[in-house]
Amino acid sequence: MYDIINYRLFTIGGDTPVLLIDLVTSLAGLVCVFLAGRNSKYNFWVGYLYTFLLFLMFWNKHLYASLLLQPISLGINILGHYRWTHPKKEEESSADHNALKVSMLTWPQRIVAVASVFVLAWLWGWLLSMMGNRWFVGVFPSDPVPYLDACVTVLILLAQFLSALKKWDCWIGWLLVNITQMILHISVGHVFMPFVCGLYLINGVVSLFNWFRLYRKDA
To answer: How far, in Å, CA of 126 to CA of 120, rounded?
Structure first.
């Protein structure tokens, strides 16, 4: 398994390896978010594979907050798959009564969400920095960017949860994720993922308007 994860396709600039796991993960992620932005329930099937690939990729780079996110992401993915395909009567889409309609958070809910991100990201980042430098020295390699890793992790959890509930606001979260994740991948030497995050960013903007159109249609 280790040989597969670290299989080098080629090297850029003489010392930056391009790994097979990075390429495959990037392609799976692009397909997943493209389907989600088009309101397709099939994004969840691709999401199951994407979660597994991300787990392997983050393990390889010692990004523990992002790695530990993947089992939680799997649970949210399962929740979203069920919610999208089993709406309550008042939540049914006008275009398909077996599909969940797009809705929005209230302003108080948005304030709570933003405050939660700041608090949880700081706490998680502090725990990661302590794990690598004081508590488990020599057991696990230190997380190279603990606070950035934690911030990306918390933002992804929030965006995934809102996506599972088909809240329009999830795309605001995903745009923030794309920007911070691009910085994270560049900082640890990932080659494909920064470009993929740029494509995610474009897809996020398109999906933001697409879901708003769906929201207005069912409002």
So the answer is: 10
